[in-house]
Amino acid sequence: MALANSFLLPTKSHLALHVSSPPSKKTLLSTNPSSNFNFNFNKALSSRRWKQSWHVAATADIKAASTLLDGEEDQKVLVEPSSEQERKGEREVADYDWTQEWYPLYLTKNVPHDAPLGLKVYDKNIVLFRDANHQFQCYEDRCPHRLAKLSEGQLIDGRLECLYHGWQFEGEGKCVKIPQLPADAKIPKSACVKTYEVRDSQGVLWVWMSPKTPPNLGKIPWFENFARPGFQDISTTHELPYDHSILLENLMDSAHIPISHDRTDWTAKREDAQPLGFEVTERTDRGFAGWWGREKDGSKPNFLWFEAPCVLQNNREIVDKMVK
Ligand code: FES
After folding, report:
1. On the chain, which terminus has fewer CB atoms closer than 10 Å, C or N?
2. Where are the alpha helices (DSSP H) in the chain?
């Protein structure tokens, strides 16, 4: 799925992103763009400026850094080289664990109230549902009994019931009912289902994919615009037939817009294809940020920020020339 700002979302993508390498083939895309196009418009006009922005948060495949050896790339990410290292062609890598990250699952308001929702993060099948207390629960989408998909089951009084033999699970994955057991038999601990931590933040449900490490709440991405009074959220959801890394790189790749978006919106004209300048202001082992713009204008009015595995924000400030 993708939450898209139709105003800015490109219609094509065709490039691959090389960041790190979780083991996956197929994905559910989940992006979270937004625009404050209408945000406090009067105030914006009075200041002769308004801003337009989009954010992306996505789950999916990430390709291996091409120079790392098989097996190493899963746990490594390139870090900022010094100019001396770049000159020598040397690169430094840092440890990276793709499971110790938050991944956006769904728009919170769109999670069904009466049925489990099957999703996929990399190669992990998970199931999301609202329990009897209206809390979100996220389990491995695999029944501990005979491995049926729990997402194909049903909700009974806030418990998730497997469609095969009717085992029921609640809360932290505890099995609370096995219809075939004698009344005096105890349900074994091995009947519990594996769980994942989920959090609702700014209208998006995020999942922490590490089964071993406690969730790091400080890592949940925060989009400042969503918290502003008057911010208009126009997020929507789309299923995309490719992984999120392709979408992320497409959204970073402004050079394609004049050509592939020619006349599809008011900003795109093929005759505007030209060199772009990007001034990197921050590089870390999880991403980068910087200002970019047309080289010939000499200005860099756009600010782009990427943070692995799935956050991209692009802000553009436009001066309204109609207001004196
Ligand atoms: S497979 Fe789920 S109850 Fe048997």
Report:
1. C
2. 41-46, 83-88, 244-252, 257-260
Query: Do 24 and 123 contact (CB within 8 A), yes or no?
Result: yes
Pair 250, 58: CB distance under 8 Å: no
Q: Cα separation of 227 and 57, whole Å?
A: 17
The residue whose two tokens read 């994955």 is 173
User: Does residue 179 surpass a pLDDT of 80?
Assistant: yes
292 φψ region: left (φ > 0), alpha (ψ -120 to 50), beta (else): beta
Report, as an integer, the average pLDDT of 232-252. Answer: 85
Q: Distance between CA atoms of 251 and 272, rounded to whole angstroms?
A: 18
Q: What is the whole-number distance in angstroms between the Cα of residue 171 and the centre of ligand 1? A: 18
User: Who lines ligand 1 at CB under 6 A?
Assistant: 143, 145-146, 148, 162, 164-165, 167
With a pLDDT cut of 90, the percent of the chain lying above it is 51
Candidate ranges 66-75, 95-104, 172-181, 265-274; pick with highest mean pLDDT: 172-181
Task: Provide the whole-model pTM.
Answer: 0.71
| CB count in 10 Å sphere of residue 19 | 23
Token output for 7:
């105003």
b/e map 56-70, b = 16+ CB within 10 Å: bbbbbbbbbbeebee
For a mutational test of ligand 1's pocket, the pick from 160, 162, 187, i.e. the residue with the most ligand atoms closer than 8 A to its C-beta, is: 162
Q: How far is it, in rounded angstroms, from Cα 287 to Cα 252?
A: 12
Q: Whose CA is nearest to atom 1 of ligand 1?
A: 146
Q: What is the Cα–Cα distance from 311 to 292, expressed in whole angstroms?
A: 18
